[in-house]
Amino acid sequence: MKIFLRFAPEINQEPHISEVILETGAKLNINRASVDAVSGEVVVDVPDEKLNEVIKLFRSRGVEVSILEHPVILDEDECINCGACISVCYVRALSFKDDWSIALDEKRCNQCGACITACPHGALEFS
Predict the structure, then answer these.
(1) Which of 3, 8, 15, 49 lies at a 20 to 30 A Cα distance from 39?
(2) Helices and strands of the chain, counted as H and E runs
(3) Are 2 and 11 within 8 A, CB to CB?
C-alpha cells in the first residue's frame, strides 16, 4: 500500500524514515520524494502487513500521513486513448485494454508523474 508523508519544517531534519524502518523491520520503498531545507513530501510503498504499525509510528513523530488508495486517477471522459501515457510508463502500470482504452494497474504505479506530464488532455492526475 502506498502512503503519502508530509514533513513539517520543524521535523524535516530528523531521520524519521530510517527510524521507522529500524523499529518496524518494514522494507519501505520510496517511490517519489520532494525534500528541501524547510519541508518534505514523500510517497512510500509499505508492505500490507506492516501498514498500521508504520502509519502509527510516523504519526507519533508528527508526520502527516495519508493512505493513497488510488496513486493516479484516470479521467476516462477526458482520455482520448492516444497511449502517450503508456509510452512513458517504465513500470508498465499503464497499458491498452482489448478495446484500446487505457488500463491502469495501481499496484505497479510508483507515482513518478511521467504519465501526467505526457498526457495531452490532462486526463491523469495525482490523487
Answers:
(1) 49
(2) 4, 8
(3) no
**Residue 60 CB coordination number (10 Å):** 10
Q: What is the mean pLDDT of the chain?
A: 92
Q: Which amino acid is at 61?
A: R
Between 16-24 and 51-60, two packed helices, what is the crossing angle to 10 degrees? 140
User: Do the beta carbons of residue 27 and residue 1 sit within 8 Å?
Assistant: no
**Residue positions counted in the chain:** 127
Alpha helices in 29-83 (DSSP H): 51-60
Find residue 74's DSSP bridge partners: 124
Backbone angles phi, psi at 54, to 5 degrees: -65, -45
For 5, counting Cβ atoms within 10 Å of its Cβ (0-12 exposed, 13-18 middle, 19+ buried), the class is buried
In whole angstroms, what is the distance from residue 126 CA to residue 118 CA? 13
